[in-house]
């Protein structure tokens, strides 16, 4: 039996001028994946393989440093999210540590001095991931049948985008949670994982492993797209399961939204087609704050974790 997996989309037709040929197939695949469960992967996306490999290697070197060394870049406090080095609180079910960066040039950023090339590689990776963020947003715009550039204009400020380098510790004998089951709050997420594996996505109530493949980037739709489309596109449910012995390293790029934006189901998916909105509107930064609290003060009861259902309207 063939192992179930998520679809792979070749992004090259979208990166070249005047190439219409294979776009249709890609649009169909992405529309189907996003309507059902919100996950797919991309190849020929323009992010250099060499850069991806370098980033993973430098990340390994960085996270191997002592806590004292890593804590030198503890988060700057006034940022919308804690930029710099953080570790999940001890009582959190999530067992990972991470380095979070905003776009190169952002005043919030605190970069490690060592390894010496890390900053340059993080900045370059950010720029390249950001480019596919914009390309993918445009593709999703088309998949949703929105007017050209609608999402681009709605989400024109890139300063809230962020990227995390993550390290998941090896599993212990009795416990293997890397990140508990969740959906991402932002617009579109891109994951670059090493060869260890452990990312799983929920499809038809079945957990599907996203098998690592060199050069491949995993894409998932987040809550903002789910709300705007009134749940036409699904925010993907996923988790990371830790393996024994080895640490797992990944980079996650969040194509995000300015916190001052108001988010609510678009008329194209409600009034104009006679459907009731499934969410009430909210200020994006309020939701991002609530989600940050989930992380910094993990509720002891799973039902107290805030999800997008917090803004849900029962229909
Ligand atoms: O590390 C990964 O593969 C996924 C991380 C993730 O789901 C997240 O940070 O939201
Ligand atoms: Fe996630």
From TrEMBL:
Name under which the protein is recorded: Uncharacterized protein
Organism annotation: Trifolium pratense (Red clover)
């Amino acid at each position: 039996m063939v192992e179930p997996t998520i679809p792979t989309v070749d992004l090259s037709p979208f990166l070249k001028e005047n190439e219409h040929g294979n776009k249709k197939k890609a649009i169909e695949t992405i529309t189907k994946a996003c309507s059902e469960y919100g996950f797919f992967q991309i190849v020929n996306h323009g992010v250099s393989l060499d850069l991806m490999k370098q980033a993973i290697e430098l990340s390994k070197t960085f996270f191997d440093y002592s806590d004292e060394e890593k804590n030198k870049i503890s988060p700057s406090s006034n940022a919308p999210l804690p930029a710099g080095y953080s570790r999940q609180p001890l009582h959190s079910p999530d067992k990972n540590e991470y380095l979070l960066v905003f776009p190169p040039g952002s005043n919030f950023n605190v970069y490690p001095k060592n390894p010496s090339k890390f900053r340059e590689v993080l900045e370059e990776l950010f720029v390249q991931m950001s480019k596919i963020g914009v390309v993918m947003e445009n593709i999703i715009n088309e998949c949703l049948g929105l007017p050209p550039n609608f999402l681009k204009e709605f989400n024109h400020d890139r300063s809230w985008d962020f990227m995390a380098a993550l390290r998941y510790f090896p599993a212990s004998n009795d416990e293997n949670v890397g990140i508990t089951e969740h959906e991402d709050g932002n617009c579109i997420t891109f994951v670059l994982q090493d060869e260890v594996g452990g990312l799983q996505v929920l499809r038809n109530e079945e957990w599907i492993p996203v098998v690592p493949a060199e050069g491949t980037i995993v894409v998932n739709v987040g809550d903002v797209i789910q709300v705007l489309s009134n749940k036409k596109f699904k925010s993907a449910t996923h988790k990371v399961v830790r393996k024994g012995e080895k640490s797992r390293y990944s980079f996650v790029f969040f194509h995000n939204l300015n916190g001052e934006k108001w988010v609510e189901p678009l008329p194209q998916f409600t009034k104009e087609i006679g459907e009731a909105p499934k969410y009430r509107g909210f200020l994006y930064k309020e939701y991002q704050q609530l989600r940050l609290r989930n992380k910094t003060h993990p509720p002891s009861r799973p039902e107290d974790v805030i999800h997008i259902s917090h803004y849900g309207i029962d229909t």
